[in-house]
Write a structure and sequence with these properties.
β5, α5 and β6 form a beta-alpha-beta unit. Strands 1, 2, 3, 4, 5, 6, 7, 8, 9 and 10 form a ten-stranded mixed sheet that branches. This protein has eleven helices and ten strands. The termini are far apart. It has 327 residues and is of the alpha/beta class.
């Protein structure tokens, strides 16, 4: 009897040391999920890799984070069924949903549903200190890297500098490429709208002291009046080593969106899995600190996926009126 009890105790101890198996996938779930992120070197890509790792382990299906050109491309991939999840800024999402902006050509993209608030993207302009520039007007005639053409930075900074009447040449490419070209002298700086700190910008600053160029209060007021989807934002000092004062700017909140036809239970469990692994997400990138259930209210126009709405209701979040699917 004692021998049998000892064996049972050893078996129980061994089982306790084994990781809990992931929940089994339901029959109506897809075999895999593809997440549209952005270019390597940016926050989307790092965040997306962490998201894929969490979901792969928790859902029991293959989840991959794929490098793309950013928000605009992710919306197109979702609409055409080439991706099942995507990361977008809500400014680009607003244009896609309503068919405004040059890139939509009047077409409304209605396959996406909001599931997860990510973080706010502050608009940041950084140039080498050796350039001697301290204001946006001093960037006239300069070459600024803005990441992929279809990304938020590539879309918005063109509009911003046109609105301010400052002629700037924009160069497009991956964020990693932008940083190396600044170091090599082919670019005069970067203009980025993504979660801070940006990995590629930190790498750049390790080799090249930077000056962060802030908009004037009058310029911020002009831009906010022209682009209502943007909001006042402050990037705290010390976010980057060269940033010695708080940096007033504009921001655009980011969301993970899902295809509307994904099963409700899959999306419910995906959202729950992310919040259950919140600390793991934050360890991957500090921007994940803003991935909080309360921030789902930062969505003011995009309908929630039914599975996401179910989760937020269960934990007591008051959801925006008109964005919750009918029962």
């Amino acid at each position: 009897m004692k021998t049998q009890l000892l064996r049972l105790a050893l078996l129980a101890a061994a089982l306790a040391l084994c990781p809990a198996p992931a929940l089994a996938a339901a029959p109506d779930w897809p075999d895999q999920l593809r997440i549209g992120t952005a270019s390597p070197g940016g926050t989307y890509y790092v965040y997306g890799q962490a998201l894929a790792d969490i979901l792969s382990g928790e859902l029991g299906i293959e989840v991959t984070a794929e490098a793309t050109q950013g928000s605009t491309r992710n919306i197109i991939l979702l609409e055409t069924g080439q991706a099942t999840l995507g990361m977008i800024t809500m400014g680009i999402g607003w244009e896609a949903w309503n068919g405004t902006g040059e890139w939509t050509k009047g077409r409304r993209f209605r396959a996406m549903r909001a599931i997860l608030p990510m973080y706010n993207s502050p608009f940041v302009i950084a140039v080498p200190k050796r350039l001697g520039a301290r204001s946006p007007s001093e960037l006239a005639g300069k070459r600024l890297g803005v990441g992929p053409r279809a990304g938020t930075s590539g879309t918005y900074f063109l509009r911003i500098f046109e609105a301010l009447g400052i002629p700037v040449t924009f160069i497009y490419g991956s964020l990693e490429e932008m940083a190396s070209r600044v170091i090599g002298g082919q670019l005069d700086g970067v203009a980025l709208a993504t979660g801070a700190p940006v990995p590629a910008l930190l790498e750049l600053e390790a080799k090249e002291p930077l000056e962060f160029i802030a908009f004037t209060p009058e310029q911020l007021a002009t831009l906010k009046e022209l682009m209502l989807e943007l909001s006042a934002t402050t990037l705290p000092r010390a976010t980057y080593p060269s940033l010695t004062e708080d940096y007033p700017t504009l921001g655009n909140f980011n969301f993970v969106v899902a295809h509307k036809d994904l099963p409700e239970d899959l999306v419910y469990r995906a959202v729950k899995a992310v919040y259950d692994n919140y600390e793991r997400l934050v360890r991957a990138h500090s921007a994940g600190k803003e991935t909080l259930p309360a921030n789902v209210t930062r969505d003011t126009f995009l309908p929630l996926h039914r599975g996401a709405a179910r989760y937020y209701r269960e934990i007591g979040v008051a959801l925006p009126a008109g964005l919750v699917p009918a029962d």
